[in-house]
Amino acid sequence: MNGRRVDQGNEGKRVALVLGSGGARGYAHIGVIEVLEARGYEIVAISGCSMGALVGGIYAAGGLPAYRDWVCRLDYFDVLRLVDVTWSPMGAMRASKVMSKLESLIGATRIEDLPVPLTTVATDLVRQREVWFQSGPLLEAIRASIAVPGVITPVHRGDQVLVDGGLLNPLPIIPLVSAHADLVLAVNTTAHSPRPVTLDELLADDEPDEGKDEPRDDARRDVVGQQFSGWMDDVRDATRRLLDGLSPASAAEEEDDQAVGRRAWGRLDMILASFDITQAALAKYKVAGYPPDVLIEVPKTVCGAYEFHRAEALIRLGQRLAMEALDNYEGRKHRALGSTQALVVESPKLPDEGETGGP
Q1: Beta strand 14-19 pairing with 183-191
Q2: What is the Cα gyration radius of the chain?
Q3: At 54, which helix (H) or strand (E)?
Q4: Which residues are the active-site residues?
Q5: pLDDT digits over 80-90, tens only?
Q6: Is 212 exposed, middle or buried (0-12, 13-18, 19+ CB in 10 A)?
Q7: How far is it, in rounded angstroms, from Cα 128 to Cα 65?
């Protein structure tokens, strides 16, 4: 695909890797990549959308180890500090702080200069179609692909208004159908599961996530509060509301919700939950149209799309699912490449699910 010489030692292990959207669940992509490399697979092409575009782009640029170290150190309050609220009608956040960090990792890298061919996918709101980035500044491509409509402000490029590629194609398999690879492996992090399943359930026999899921303690909260003292109170409150999904309803309405056991839905909750549902349905159609050789499914219920303080656990989940996927793939004999039936690896420990969707 890119004209480079293929290592004969990796014959049969050349992977075209599809990394889907899914917010924080996209950290699982890191675990998948780590297992592929540990097993001796060569990633010869990457296609990514949203968080998949970010992880795939950082990997192709050689910055994944540093990025992994950074995200695994983020706790709840660190993530909170990365949110840069804007009052723009185009979105609630600018994502400039995150992009500054990415710039420090990959600099002014251009996609056409990467050692691995990369395609990132965005959506043009004006023309209502997909936009594939296969050349140009990598940072711009990532920024356009992660711009969740209504949450992160879009990228304006000429007369284009670019937002998250997951709006039209959350699992971009098509860019890799012509890749010179032995198998196409796709990671869908917006998968539907027959019942809601949590990350804690899936990793119940693993080590705990070192308490990163919740604020550490009152002392830590006080320290962070002092660090936030320069912010205006309304900006700070809006930021907390965005991350926590707190409902702007009146006190009487909140009490009524609690009395009947209803969840208090905030604006961010509604936007991201709706986006997740749409992406899950679209991903099914993409898989049906162009079945990958191996499909890894991460249930969309394992965590909220904005729970970016859970990197370690989500990376472990990606590792576990990838090991199971490759064990099954390698154990199948005389498997014809290009089969129309994908090997589906769903999350472990989902009792009473009925059919798994696999072969």
Answers
A1: parallel
A2: 20
A3: helix 51-60
A4: 50, 164
A5: 888 877 666 56
A6: buried
A7: 36
**129-184 pLDDT, tens per residue?**
999 999 999 999 999 999 988 788 889 999 999 999 888 999 999 999 989 999 99
Neighbouring-strand partners of residue 294:
185, 343
pLDDT over 90 percentage in the chain: 45
> With 0-12 CB in 10 A as exposed, 13-18 as middle and 19+ as buried, what is 314?
buried
Residue 297 per-residue DSSP state: E
Q: In terms of Cα–Cα distance, which of 184, 186, 198, 141 is closest to 164?
A: 141
Residue 35: CB partners within 8 Å, gap ≥ 6? 318, 319, 322, 323, 326
The 3-state DSSP class for residue 276 equals: helix
315: its two tokens: 């990376």
* pLDDT confidence tier of residue 229, bands split at 50, 70 and 90: very low
3-class SS of residue 142: helix
Q: Which single residue is written with the structure tokens 């959350």?
A: 170
Model confidence at 114: pLDDT above 80: yes
Phi and psi torsions of 41, nearest 5°: -80, 145
Residue carrying structure tokens 């965590």 = 303
Q: Which two tokens stand for residue 299?
A: 């249930």
In angstroms, the CA 105 to CA 219 distance is 32
- Residues 110, 138: contact at Cβ < 8 Å? yes
